[in-house]
Amino acid sequence: MQTTDQAAKAQNPKAQNKPSSRDISAAGLRAFFNIARDWGLNTDEQMVLLGAPGRSTFFKWKSAPETADLKRDTLERVSYLLGIYKALQILLPASAAADSWVKKPNAAPLFGGKSALDRMLGGNVADLLAVRQYLDARRGGWA
User: Fold this and answer.
1) Do residues 5 and 21 touch, judged by C-beta distance below 8 A?
2) What DSSP string runs through 51-65?
3) What is the pLDDT of residue 17?
4) Which tens digits make up the pLDDT trace of 74-83?
5) Considering only CA atoms, which of 32, 35, 34, 39 is closest in space to residue 104?
6) Exposed, middle or buried, 21 (CB in 10 Å: 0-12/13-18/19+)?
7) What is the pLDDT of residues 56-104, one digit of tens each?
8) Among 5, 57, 86, 111, which is 20 to 30 Å from 100 by CA?
9) Where are the domains of the chain?
10) Residue among 89, 87, 102 nearest 133 (CA)
11) What is the DSSP string of 21-37?
12) What per-residue confidence (pLDDT) applies to 139?
């Protein structure tokens, strides 16, 4: 039996090159869990960053990301986190420095002496966006 994505691709040859929402979700979650590992995030922190899914949903995503079909809000969150991770790798080429930055106190006005992770754990997409924009400005743009 064909899925909706497969049926759409069969009817539209241009859609054959476009990844399905499940493909995008799986790739995003795999990347997120790798970042969470690198940053040393605990389960509760990971859940907040993903928008507070139910615990069973979270653990299903973690064990079988290919089964996930993330909502737009969650994909947006993952996108910001990927951008934050990338910006840190550019700004701080030593992986250990880049990965530890998120937990270090920061004197920048955006953080008020707290860490970037503290700001991101505010739970709002806007908190992730603020950290992403801060880092993009520090590195001189969106490239």
Assistant:
1) yes
2) T---HHHHHHHHH-G
3) 80
4) 999 999 999 9
5) 39
6) middle
7) 999 999 999 999 999 999 999 999 999 999 999 999 989 999 999 999 9
8) 57
9) 22-139
10) 87
11) HHHHHHHHHHHHHHHHH
12) 84
